[in-house]
Automatic annotation (TrEMBL):
Region (Disordered): 263-290
Protein's name according to its UniProt entry: High-affinity branched-chain amino acid transport ATP-binding protein LivG
Protein source organism: Streptomyces glaucescens
GO molecular function terms listed in the Swiss-Prot or TrEMBL record: ATP binding; ATP hydrolysis activity; L-isoleucine transmembrane transporter activity; L-phenylalanine transmembrane transporter activity; L-valine transmembrane transporter activity
Xref: InterPro entries: AAA+_ATPase, ABC_AA/LPS_Transport, ABC_transporter-like_ATP-bd, BCA_ABC_TP_C, P-loop_NTPase
Length: 290
């Protein structure tokens, strides 16, 4: 595969630098730097529309960033999702994307296709080559189902699982590609408190297996409990990054969540310019009236 080797940073699994993503006139992500180190769980938070998912899509090759680069274990990644997965980054999506009419075990087996000689279509169509590879993969997939607590449901159809277990299955499928970094996009969305606690335990267990985790979440309590480090995006820019307790107490973060402007907020200068122009226009109009 075509990766460019750069000087390896000590323990960085992910090293994203200056990532910018523009859609026409809209800058959804602006110059974001983020590293995730071995053994870390890092959180990415921010109000709706802050650019979190767009940033994830830049990391996983779904989008080609307008500027910036993304390196995994010292190698710059080509912006192609299957090459990114092959390199060692796996992800889950905000909306569950399982093969609903396949069994739980089959879903995990499909997730292994980047680690077997057989391709995705071979896996989906169950060609002879897939059956041989399946034999080897079955054991590993069952281990993952044990790990995620789904082994007893290996033969159930994915669509018949309760919601929390479908989310777990997505994680099991992502783990099947044997990643070094797992990206989770809102893993607890729609979960009840009990399911959320189980998800938290599962993510800690994944970290303990040596897989670094980067997680987007709206549930602030969940993220503060879970993460070693938290980065905050507001209007596409990273405004704060640090340990959970520091970020939680940061007035810029509180203001961003309460929707109040703060010193140096992204877009504040532009807003001030607009206000000044409006004030000037207003005073001119008043002057005209006289
Ligand atoms: N494909 C696209 N084309 C044009 N604009 C887009 C596209 N994807 C995202 N955007 C815009 O980019 C901005 C950031 O969106 P994004 O979904 O990344 O935010 P988010 O932080 O993940 O939000 P949420 O928490 O609501 O999921 C938004 O203004 C959104 O409308």
């Amino acid at each position: 595969m075509t990766t460019t080797t750069t000087a390896p940073t000590s323990t960085a699994v992910l090293d994203a630098s200056g990532v910018t993503m523009r859609f026409g006139g809209l800058t959804a992500v602006r110059g974001v730097d983020l590293t995730v180190n071995t053994g870390e769980i890092v959180g990415l938070i921010g109000p709706n529309g802050a650019g979190k998912t767009t940033f994830f899509n830049c990391l996983t090759g779904l989008y080609v960033p307008t500027e910036g680069k993304v390196a995994y274990k010292g190698s710059v990644l080509p912006p192609k999702p299957h090459l990114v997965t092959q390199a060692g980054i796996a992800r889950t999506f905000q909306n569950i994307r399982l093969f609903a009419n396949m069994t739980v075990l089959e879903n995990v087996l499909v997730g292994r296709h980047t680690r077997t000689k057989e391709g995705l279509w071979s896996a989906l169509l169950r060609l002879p080559g897939f059956k041989r590879a399946e034999q080897e993969s079955r054991e590993r997939a069952m281990e993952l189902l044990e790990f995620t607590g789904l082994a007893a449901k290996a033969d159930h159809l994915a669509r018949n699982l309760p919601y929390g277990e479908q989310r777990k299955l997505e994680i099991a499928r992502a783990l099947a590609s044997e990643p070094g970094l797992l990206l989770l996009d809102e893993p607890t969305a729609g979960m009840n408190p009990q399911e959320t606690r189980a998800a938290e335990e599962l993510i800690f267990a994944i970290r303990d297996k040596g897989i670094a985790v980067l997680v987007i979440e709206h549930d602030i309590r969940f993220i503060m409990n879970l993460c070693d480090r938290v980065a905050v995006l507001v209007q596409g820019e990273k405004i704060v990054e640090g340990p959970a307790e520091v970020v939680q107490a940061d007035e810029r973060v509180i203001a961003a969540y309460l929707g109040e402007p703060f010193e140096g907020a992204p877009g504040k200068e532009e807003a001030a310019e607009v206000e000044a122009a409006e004030a000037e226009a207003h005073s001119t109009m008043e002057g005209d009236d006289k």
